[in-house]
Design brief:
The structure is a homodimer.
Chain A: E1 6-9, H1 15-24, E2 29-32, H2 40-44, E3 48-49, H3 53-58, E4 62-65, H4 70-78, H5 83-86, E5 92-95, H6 101-112, E6 117-120, E7 123-124, H7 126-132, E8 135-140, H8 143-154, E9 157-164, H9 168-196, H10 201-208, H11 216-226, H12 236-253, H13 258-272, H14 283-290
Parallel strand pairs in A: 1-2, 1-4, 2-3, 4-5, 5-6, 8-9
Antiparallel strand pairs in A: 7-8
Helix pairs in contact in A: 1-7, 9-11, 9-12, 9-13, 9-14, 12-13
Chain lengths: 295, 295
């Protein structure tokens, strides 16, 4: 079976290793990155480097994009020298960025006008998941198109779930971020309550984590908060971006999310304090400040 | 080794099966319950039924109490015909109710004046945990006393953790309830966001539960909310009581808990709507109301 020709745009901390897995699985790969130096390693391994997203699309049956935010995806796909200018009929764009579900729907419209289609497929699992090809991938779009590109997604991730029509991958990712953020507020409040009342926080975590109070956030970020380790697994600046997307989509969808709104504001306070590049667990420091606990 | 003589006060949905395990493990057992009919089954199995908490304490080296709220424990221990009126020196009271940590400290003082001591040992795991002896038990008090009564706790529970001085069991249980309540707000908001935006909620849960968004609340109560099953695992009325204890202790300890306060108010709204005897997952209906989603 001939492998699909693949294009990859956005070779950052996530995209770099993801593109590497595609290449090492013998897919013909064409790449573009705004900062050209980031293409060098993959080029040395056999990837074709080109000068624009349009050139990537012209050379590829499937073009993958993974960039920062909604305007970046719009620019790469629909801007000057963008994917739409080079793409051939019956091609597929897979956007693996975390962006607005509404923007994905708009781009899908534009691609359909060229007899192409869009799969939105944001990921979770962080840079470690990208390196080890253990990402969770949440995909939206036409089901037949999804089935066609599934083997390609399987090269990058471990849990790949089809979530529904285009935009559904993003909506699922946003649900993920609601859960992550509000669960972390739970962990932060329990820890500040424990500490201020003189409990041994580590013992508290061990006592409750196996039952109804248990969560990934408690088991993984709770001990980091106790040990004053605020290095980023996932950065505050990035969760603020994602929660902005949640609140935008909540506005479009007419949903009221008081807990998510509250924790978003606290994350903004972490950012305001100059700690936007710390890990999300820095949220705990805001709760400590509110209780006049010194770090 | 002669087994400790045990007294048990409070044979409700939790206490009944817990006392049963003690009896079936060959501890001599003396029991009292306000509603006497609830003593009959254990009496038929060999437990000694008496007429007051004082008589229980007089017959027992260790007296266990598990009743509803702080005033009930105060009444049973320090009220007329209470434990303090019958207790012999060097005895232990284990309070397994969920009540105020401060009240436990006050009762410990009174017990110490009689050369006795208190272990506060609230539980989690619900009626199923009580029946199967798989409760999590969070204990506070003198460490030596804890070690002495540990084999007795092991008859009722699976995970038994020593948390620190008297009151620490309650404080740990309250941390557990903060986590449970705020995690459930996370789940409720993610589900209402998913539903209002047209996602398949079950698919969303499956897509995210294995990663950083995962929690006991999501895996266990999420599907109940999707299936409109609001039968109680743990009742709204009871979590409201526990969150009241949290906010009282937060006041004493000078801690600010904005997320817990928010979710407490939503649980009160469930109660106000006449659904206090539903399971805690009925919280989701408040978020649905806020988004004008019909059940």
């Amino acid at each position: 079976m001939t492998k699909l020709s693949v294009g990859f745009i956005g070779l950052g901390i996530m995209g770099g290793p993801m593109a590497g897995h595609i290449l090492s699985n013998q897919y013909p790969l064409t790449i573009y990155n705004r900062t050209r130096s980031k293409t060098e390693e993959l080029a040395s391994q056999g990837a074709q480097v080109v000068n624009s997203p349009a050139e990537v699309a012209a050379a590829s049956e499937v073009t993958i994009t993974i960039v920062s935010d909604s305007p970046d995806v719009e620019d790469v796909v629909a801007g000057p020298d963008g994917v739409l200018e080079g793409i051939k009929p019956n091609s597929v764009v897979i956007d693996m960025s975390t962006i607005s579900p509404e923007v994905e729907r708009q781009l899908d419209e534009k691609l359909r006008a060229k007899d192409c289609s869009l799969i939105d497929a944001p990921v979770s699992g962080g840079d470690v998941g990208a390196q080890n090809a253990t990402l969770a991938i949440m995909a939206g779009g036409d089901r037949e198109v999804f089935e066609k590109i599934l083997p390609l997604l399987e090269v990058m991730g471990k849990s790949i779930i089809y979530c529904g029509p285009v935009g559904s991958g993003q909506l699922t990712k946003l649900c993920n971020q609601i859960l992550v953020a509000v669960n972390l507020l739970a962990v932060s409040e329990a820890l500040v309550f424990a500490r201020k009342n003189g409990l041994d926080s580590s013992v508290m975590i061990d006592a409750v984590k196996g039952g109804a109070a248990g969560s990934w956030q408690l088991s993984n970020l709770g001990p980091k908060i106790v040990n004053r380790d605020f290095s980023p697994g996932f950065m505050v600046d990035l969760i603020i971006k994602d929660l902005r997307l949640v609140m935008e989509a909540a506005g479009t969808g007419k949903v009221s999310l008081p807990g998510t709104a509250l924790v978003s504001q606290f994350f903004r306070s972490v950012q305001a304090g100059g700690q936007g590049e710390e890990g999300t667990q820095a949220l705990a420091k805001i709760l400590e400040d509110l209780a006049s606990l010194k770090s």
